[in-house]
Structure formats: C-alpha cells, structure tokens
Specification:
The chain has a single domain (about 1-235), classed as Spore Coat Polysaccharide Biosynthesis Protein SpsA, Chain A (Alpha-Beta Complex), CATH 3.90.550. The chain is about 30% helix and about 25% strand. The chain contains seven helices and twelve strands. It has helices spanning about 30-40, 60-65, 85-95, 115-125, 175-185, 195-200, 220-235, and strands at about 1-10, 25, 30, 45-55, 75-80, 100-105, 130-135, 145, 155-160, 165-170, 175, 205-210. The strands form three sheets. Strands 1, 4, 5, 6, 7, 10, 11 and 12 form an eight-stranded mixed β-sheet that branches. Strand 2 and strand 3 (about 30) form a beta hairpin. It is globular and about 55 Å long. The model has no long low-confidence stretch (mean pLDDT about 95). The structure holds cytidine-5'-triphosphate and magnesium ion. InterPro entries: IspD, IspD/TarI, IspD/TarI_cytidylyltransf_bact, ISPD_synthase_CS, Nucleotide-diphossugar_trans. It catalyses: 2-C-methyl-D-erythritol 4-phosphate + CTP + H(+) = 4-CDP-2-C-methyl-D-erythritol + diphosphate. This is 2-C-methyl-D-erythritol 4-phosphate cytidylyltransferase. Pathway: Isoprenoid biosynthesis; isopentenyl diphosphate biosynthesis via DXP pathway; isopentenyl diphosphate from 1-deoxy-D-xylulose 5-phosphate: step 2/6.
Length: about 240
C-alpha cells in the first residue's frame, strides 16, 4: 500500500510574530518546511509529499524544494493553500493522485518529528486503524474556564478534567485515505485537527506514542527550542 504525506504549510504564523510565512522561516539555516518535508521523506513508507503552500507562494516553494536534496524515491507536489488549515488540507487531498491509500497529514510547523514516530503512525494504519494520532501525556494540569464577562475580568474555572486521561496530540496523523476524504467532504464545523474530523464521523481514532521533538513551533520561544534540538542533533 502506497503512502503519501500532505503538509499544510500555508499559514502566516501570526503567533510567531512579524516576518516571512512561518513555514519559510529558517531553522539551522534551512526553511522549516524543508525540515518537515525531509522528516516525511525519511520514512521509507512515504513515496509522495504534497506541500500546501501559501496561496501566493506556490512557485517560490517549488523552487525552494528543488534546491534542497530529498531522497530519490520521494516525489513532491506543491499546491496553493486556503484560508484555514482545514481548507489547506482539503486542497492537498484534492491533489492526491490515485494509488495512495494511506495518507499522513503533517504540520510544516513540526519540523523535527523523528522518523520512528512517522513509521509508528504508518504501521498503525497498515494494521487496520482508520485514523492514528501521536499523543503525549500532559505536563500541566488543564482547567476548563468560563469566558471572561468582559476583557480584563477573571475567567472562572468550571472544571478540572482528570489529567491522566488527557493527551496532547501531534502530527503526522495517519488515515485510510477514503476515511479522511469523506471526513473533509462531510464535516463542516471548525475542528483543529484532522483526526477530530474523523471522530465526527463516529469512527475510532487510536493513539501511538508521540515524541517531545515533534512539538509545534508556534511562539518565538519554540524557535529557540527548535534551534537547540537541531544543534544537539548535529553534535
Ligand atoms: N496552515 C495552513 N493553512 C492555513 C493555516 C495554517 O496550511 N490557512 C498550516 C500552517 O502552515 C501550519 C499548520 O497548518 O503548518 C499548523 O497551523 P499553525 O501552527 O496554527 O500555523 P499558522 O496558522 O501559520 O500560525 P498562527 O495560527 O500563529 O498564525
Ligand atoms: Mg493557525
């Protein structure tokens, strides 16, 4: 069974602060997106990577990827993204050729995911799961709050979910292609991850162990951590 990876990379990266679109920001001198593409291509299971570029940046992303070496066995397609992550993933799925029956969806903003994590996700889909997410236990206790009555007012806490049953989930998330396509065709509410859309179909999503280095680069401090992880790898 052939496996493709869709990489949504069309976001601006507002939380990272001013600068180039997040996926094009440098990490160890190389754009974050290139790290993310390599992380997928490093898995022997993955033979196609579909990059979803900023809407006006598909040409630039194509030349960028042409300029960086990838394993020979990996094909790369670049398509323009949309206004939301969901829309961008949908555009990537629409561009998938026939013959790829397993699809990974991986954030460009998780450039350092280890190949073992990618392989574990693929393997769980091959073993029959409709949807798979890498997941980690939480370090922090999580509170559910009521929205503040007015800006600046305190937010009353309404519940403390049992932390031992909560997980932070990462990408790549892995899917039977037909299931993910159906989810994107039928689920219209805002969901922040693809597995969440599959849950809305009433299907079971399973977890595999995530990895600390698969963290998402979201805020400036995450870039500091990512640079440190990369420097440690290069020792
Ligand atoms: N993404 C996308 N298309 C969008 C929005 C997001 O392809 N319209 C991608 C981002 O490029 C990123 C991934 O979805 O790789 C995860 O999103 P996030 O970390 O939120 O990135 P941004 O949306 O770019 O960041 P921010 O929310 O801070 O603007
Ligand atoms: Mg975002």
């Amino acid at each position: 069974v052939r496996t493709a990876a869709v990489i949504p990379a069309a976001g601006r990266g507002v939380r990272l602060g001013p600068g180039a679109p997040k996926a094009l920001r440098a990490l160890g001198g190389t754009p974050m997106l290139v790290h993310a593409v390599r992380a997928m291509a490093d898995s022997r299971a993955v033979s196609l990577v579909v990059v979803v570029a900023p809407p006006d940046g598909a040409g630039e992303v194509k030349s960028l990827l042409d300029a960086h070496a990838l394993p020979e066995r990996t094909d790369v397609l670049v398509v323009p993204g949309g206004d939301s992550r969901q829309e961008s993933v949908k555009r990537g799925l629409d561009a998938l050729p026939e013959g790829y029956d397993i699809v990974l969806v991986h954030d460009a903003a998780r450039p350092l995911v280890p190949v073992d994590t990618v392989d574990a996700v693929v393997e769980a889909v091959r073993d029959g799961a409709a949807a798979v997410v890498p997941a980690l236990p939480l370090a922090d206790t999580v509170k559910q709050v009521e929205p503040a009555a007015a800006p600046g007012e305190p937010e009353p806490v309404v519940a403390t979910p049992d932390r031992s049953r909560l997980r932070a989930v990462q990408t790549p998330q892995g899917f039977e292609r037909a299931t993910l396509v159906r989810a994107h065709e039928t689920v219209t509410d805002d969901v922040t991850d693809d597995a969440g859309m599959v849950e809305r179909l009433g299907l079971t999503v399973v977890t595999v162990p995530g990895h600390e280095e698969a963290f998402k680069v979201t805020r400036p401090l995450d870039l500091v951590l990512a640079e440190a992880v990369l420097a440690r790898r290069r020792l």
